[in-house]
Amino acid sequence: MGYIAPDDIQVMISWLQKHPSHPMTYYLLPTILTCFDVVDPETLGGETRHKIATDAALISSLKSLFGPTTDWKDSGLKSVLLLKWTLFLTEARHRQPDLEDREGFKTDDLETQVWSAVQGGCFLYATRTVMTLNRKQGAYPPTSYAAPLLRNYESDPALEIPTEDFKPAILESFEILVQLLITHASSELRKIKQRQEDILLANARTDRTRAFRSSVTQGRHTTASTEAAPSEPARNDIAMLFVLIGALYSALPPDSALPFWGGGAREGQRQTYISLESAAARLPSFLQWAVWSTQARDVDMLMALYDMLTGLAHGQQCSELAYNFLARGSADGTPGQSSTALGSGPAVSWGSIFALLEQWALLGSSPRPPQQSSLGTQANLSALQQQQTHRTHHHQSLILTQQDVLLAQSFLRLLAAVSTHSVAVRITISGHARFRAIPTMVSLIPLSIPLELKGALFDVLASFCLPGAGAPGVEICKSIWTMMERLELINVRAAPGSGVAMPPIKGIEVELEEVEAVHKLYPETIPFLRLLSTLMHTPKSVPSGDILTDSAPLNTIPDTLGHPYRQPGIAPYTSFVVDKVFSRISQREYLKPCDRWLMNDLCLCFIERCLASFDLESLVT
């Protein structure tokens, strides 16, 4: 009972070849991947898998099924199975060296199969599957590098999602696949990265040569031979692997990625043979290689690397180790200990992140002609870039390209992840005199930058305002209230009911009505509502121990907020939520129907928390 014979494996794979979109695919795929797991050879399961690996009939049939001439309806599904089968054979050869000369176990064959699996799109298929399982409100989890690739599947009819109790089995099968790939084929990954980088450089040289020849022939004559068609974008499968790792560990339970940081398994995590034997050494080495081999000029790899680090920082212990990894260039240490050479060394570090944000803030504050706000969607980002290119600016004005925005979103998600999961990291970063994290981020919001980037900044600020950080957390909230008031992110000088209200000429209200409502997308307003809700702490949200010891005040609003030009308090912000957003939800159009209900939920959440945090004792005195 429970035994799957080699003939059964062949039948299941043949069925998947013809039915990749069947609801049973989500159940059969992890079943087959589990059959190819690496287990202790001394156990009954190890003996069974050894028989599978050395079954000549199965090897011959799978060689034909996975061959380049065999058609599959989904090449990505084929590539995932081929990759796991190849790693399974590699492990068997390691255990029994005399298999090296047998058919299917030769070094050249195994290397070719790994390359074929990667070229076939195994990483993209696995990423799409993981993100489909982790969908929220019908949308994929946020990512920067893979967003254009995944957008092709957004409108496709999704497979019937398996039940919640089976999702962990699917995610675990992909986790074992990733760990097996890193521990058994790390050299192949390096070769693939080098080979694709060489192709990219060769294409760049060809494009430059073509452009030069075209410029030479200008003014004389242009022939068809000089007008070459634009080359296709070069593949970057290692970047997609990074995205897969990030998406996978974001979906797995917190602190599942501890082995990547050199730590042990999280409490309650099922131990596999591969994790016990070699993952403890190979996974941290892979992470070090990923960071140090990524060049600062390679924006695509940087975005993918930040996506991976965001997933690996999921959990309290992982976020603290991630903070120290970027602060000191190593995977050990404690929060608060930072390197004396921040910004040097690898392409990713807290010093380089905050230095770039501060540079943008300084450039954006320089005098320049007013820029029209533009919605930061993928379709309009290129148009925004063209408009900015043809305008005449001061030579030091802030001009962000599409890649700048996507890269900023990727490292802001990493910053939000570490500050969300660890109170110690949150307090350390916010209080770091050199980083100036919160003042820098708030000062970017009034600038003429894409609204999606403003939304990412609001999301990061909300992560710093989460309850549970005690008195330092309350001070962070008060500082953000004060800075938002000083920069007038909304119209704060006309109190509701004062009779002197003037129409706003800048800020979030204008961008809501003139940009977001027109495009029917709300990338700034939704995160801003989330920030306002998070800024309001209630007795239910604060740990009961902090309330009893009075170590975490509930009042996060400065006593003099708005003084002297209005009655102190948050009346303008409440008016914005109730009058400008909540009461007009039904009057606006939404390109994404889920945005309407998300805005409705956030408005009600803010109103509820305002009522819950109100000091009723003040009415008695």
What is the tally of beta strands? 0
Assembly state (oligomeric): single chain
Describe the main β-sheet briefly: none
Poorly predicted segments: 219-231, 329-345, 368-374, 376-395
What attributes does this structure have?
single chain, about 625 residues, mainly alpha, 27 helices
Provide structural commentary.
With about 625 residues, the protein is an all-alpha fold. About 60% of the residues lie in helices and about 0% in strands. The protein has 27 helices and no strands. It has helices at about 5-20, 25-35, 45-55, 55-65, 75-95, 105-120, 120-135, 145-155, 165-185, 185-215, 235-250, 275-290, 300-310, 315-330, 350-365, 380-390, 400-420, 425-430, 435-445, 450-465, 470-485, 510-520, 525-535, 545-550, 570-580, 595-610, 615-620. The chain is elongated. It starts with 5 loop residues before the first helix and ends with a helix. Residues about 220-230, about 330-345, about 370-375 and about 375-395 have low confidence and may be disordered.
